[in-house]
Amino acid sequence: MEVSLLALILTLSAWIALTRNLSRWIPWLYLLLGIGTLVRVDLAIPFVLMLGFELLTDRPRRRQHLFWGLGMLVGCLGAQELVRLWYYGDLLPNTYYLKMTNLSSAIRIARGLWVLFELAWQSNWVVFLLPLAVFIFRRDKSVTLLALLFAGQVAYSTYVGGDAWEHKGGANRFICTALPLWFTLFGVTLSSLRRAVEMELRLTGGWSRATSNLVALILVAFSLWNVNFLLGEYKSIDRWMLRLKPVYVDANGKYVDTALALGKLTRPGAKIAVTAAGSEAYFLPDRYFIDLLGKADKVIAREPIKAPVSLAGIADVRPGHMKWDYAYSIGKLQPDVIVQLWEGDFKSAEPFLKDYVEVRLDDMAFLARKGSPMVVWDVVK
Hints:
By secondary structure, the protein is mostly helical. It has helices at about 1-15, 25-40, 45-55, 60-85, 95-100, 105-120, 125-130, 135, 140-160, 175, 180-200, 205-225, 235-240, 250-265, 280-285, 300, 325-330, and strands at about 270-275, 290, 335-340, 355-360, 365-370.
């Protein structure tokens, strides 16, 4: 949910930076980027790139940029660090330990490159790379900044190994944050290319210009259609016309239904083990949720990777979904109800399920701990 807000913050920040002759905008630029790091800490990457760009290109106001930029960056990141140390006792976010530790850098970066290649290929690689052609026509600071910010997000996505959901198609949430800048570069490139063709062919008459406009419109429509492919599914027009549901609507509906069923199955204070630790926990704030995959569990986050990992199977690597420990999460924490096991991994969970029995409610199956007073046994089948 934070991606749309970060995309707005980054796009607005780029616009402010490109109007840097208005010195009154300088504090607001860095305040906005600072807010972005509070939404998600990795917005520090474009923050640093933006600050470095301004220091190099806006020499008359370099001191202002240094004071506001460096001050806001250190202040926002430092404040988060202090709160994290006080509340969690950790130097780094839990997801850092979950996704970045105990995984080979070569595997991680190879996976990041793979998902980047998939994105370019699915979107039509010619269309995806077209904005790079802008430097044939223009090499000014404006296009350089936009390209730098987009490249920074691509590099970050590659370094961390991408996200866990690229198998659904489209850009992951790291690259998606900077896609508005990519579209801006795309538009500038098409405009520059069109002007170059008109000058080369001396298209000055009314009909010639109309033809040029029509060709440009067709190219834009074709490009947008290509960019919105999801795993080769040629349904972009249907999605734009709302004749197809967005990708995750059905899944989220299922999780909401699961939360409603759990509300009837358990009493407040019950411990519930899940792998989908979002919607279900959101709708039941008075229950205690055990995250089997460790996003909210520092013990799991620091453990070795359980999923098989190799360069040959790089497409199957899913950051944040490769660590679990049923001996700890089930055997030690003793959940009252188990909603899911990761990818149907019953084999490694079997030794810890002897005290559990399958129950059904609202056409859904759960595992409930025998005799648990936190389970409403009267409602189950």
